[in-house]
Design a protein that fits this description.
By secondary structure, the protein is α+β, with helices and mostly antiparallel strands. It has six helices and four strands, in the order H-H-H-E-E-H-H-E-E-H.
């Protein structure tokens, strides 16, 4: 039978062990949350930087479902890069719930890209009608770049969904970003198909 002093000593030791266990548990939970927070922020940064560079291959490295790759030609790609380089973004919030996360993103981009491309096509046709023998695709790429630098901006929001698989985070859904990719590529491809026909 334990005397009073030994019981008190054992009680104190048990309390100390319980306190240390709880502290370690809280720290490990905090580290996991912090790791997930860091990983989702890093993933979002990589994905959005790739969008601003119009680097579809780099975007696909971040995603479970891949974006389509198109071969619209070097000049058209150059024009898409010119437009995408004007995109700016900031993360409003990332909420993490277990192995799922949602990022709220605010994006500023050139407004009415279709009009920019149409006006650039008009500029190019005028130059060609004036007797220029320069490469039409190169002229159009240059006209798009000039027009996009002067274009007004519009701000849109997008939601980027992420999931964690085998301790790695991936983009699983980003309809707003997909729409921006389409808003950039579709009018560019359209005007280049006209100039090259």
């Amino acid at each position: 039978m334990l005397d009073k002093d030994n019981r008190l000593l054992i009680t104190r030791a048990m309390s100390l062990i319980m306190s240390l266990t709880m502290a370690l548990f809280c720290v490990s939970c905090g580290e996991s949350k912090s790791d997930d927070s860091t990983m989702t922020e890093s993933l979002l940064n990589s994905y959005m930087k790739a969008l601003c560079d119009y680097n579809i291959g780099a975007m696909n490295k971040c995603c479970m479902a891949k974006h389509d790759l198109y071969d619209d030609g070097e000049a058209a790609l150059k024009s898409c890069v010119s437009i995408a380089s004007r995109i700016e973004w900031k993360c409003d919030n990332i909420s993490i719930d277990g192995s799922s996360a949602i990022a709220q993103v605010i994006i500023t981009m050139p407004n009415d890209i279709e009009s920019i491309c149409s006006a650039a096509l008009g500029d190019t046709v005028t130059i060609l009608d004036g007797g220029s023998e320069d490469d039409p695709a190169g002229l159009l790429a240059s006209a798009i770049k000039k027009r996009v630098q002067k274009a007004e901006s519009v701000t849109v929001s997008a939601e980027v969904a992420m999931t964690k698989v085998d301790n790695k985070w991936y983009i699983v859904n980003s309809l707003g970003v997909n729409r921006i990719l389409s808003d950039v590529r579709t009018p560019v491809a359209s005007v280049f198909s006209i100039i090259q026909s």
